């Protein structure tokens, strides 16, 4: 997985580098004090110039554009494959959770017991049922 990401990143980086340099001619300019600057155009007359990155031919530009498009297609394919893998993993996790839920015993029913009726304090008081015995 890490290798695929690295490969994809390198292909994309190569494609972006190709695009960034496709239409530029880089020139190194050195002045009398030895300071160096880089430009896409030409150097002032009093500075030495040296072409660092030559302008690309139409054929080279077309090749770089094709390479960029290929890298872009590879990236999209990798993203789609990753999304499919993640969807499959999510589906498997849902199936495992459903199977686990089916194996668990059902929860105990909850029984609500109504409160006992209140006892009235006004109950009749009865005396002894039999007369007392003599001593």
Task: Please give a handful of descriptors for the protein shown.
3-stranded antiparallel beta sheet; rod-shaped; 135 residues; mainly alpha; single chain; 48% helix; 2 helices
Distance between the termini: 104 Å
As for the number of domains, it is 2
What share of the residues lie within helices?
A: 40-55%
Q: Trace the largest sheet across and list its strands.
A: 2-1-3
Number of E-state strands = 3
Overall pLDDT score: 81
Round the Cα radius of gyration to an integer and report it: 44 Å
| Overall body shape | rod-shaped
* Low-confidence parts: none
- SS strand fraction: 5-15%
Structural class: mainly alpha
The count of helical stretches stands at 2
| H-E string | HEEEH
What's the story with the biggest beta sheet?
Answer: 3 strands, antiparallel
How do the helices and strands line up, and which of them pair or pack?
Elements: H1 2-20, E1 26-30, E2 36-39, E3 48-53, H2 58-103
Antiparallel strand pairs: 1-2, 1-3
Helix pairs in contact: 1-2
Plain-language structure description:
The chain is mainly alpha-helical and 135 residues long. Helix content is 48%, strand content 11%. A 3-stranded antiparallel sheet has the order 2-1-3, with no helix packed on it. The chain is rod-shaped. The protein starts with a helix and ends in a 32-residue tail after the last helix. The mean pLDDT is 81. Strand 1 (26-30) and strand 2 form a beta hairpin. It contains 2 helices and 3 strands. The protein has helices at 2-20, 58-103; strands at residues 26-30, 36-39, 48-53. Helix 1 runs antiparallel to helix 2. The chain folds into 2 domains: 1-21 and 56-97; 24-55, no CATH class. The longest helix is centred in the middle third of the chain and has 46 residues, at 58-103.
């Amino acid at each position: 997985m890490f290798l695929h990401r690295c490969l994809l990143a390198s292909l994309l980086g190569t494609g972006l580098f190709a695009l960034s340099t496709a239409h530029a001619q880089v020139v190194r300019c050195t002045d009398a004090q030895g300071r160096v600057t880089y430009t896409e155009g030409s150097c002032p007359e009093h500075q030495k110039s040296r072409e660092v990155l030559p302008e690309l031919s139409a054929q080279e530009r077309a090749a770089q554009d094709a390479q960029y498009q290929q890298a872009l297609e590879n990236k999209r394919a990798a993203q789609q494959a990753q999304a499919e893998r993640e969807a499959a993993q999510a589906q498997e996790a849902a199936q495992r959770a459903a199977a686990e839920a089916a194996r668990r015993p059902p929860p105990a029913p909850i029984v609500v017991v109504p409160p006992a009726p209140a006892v009235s304090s006004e109950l009749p008081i009865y005396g002894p049922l039999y007369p007392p015995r003599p001593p």
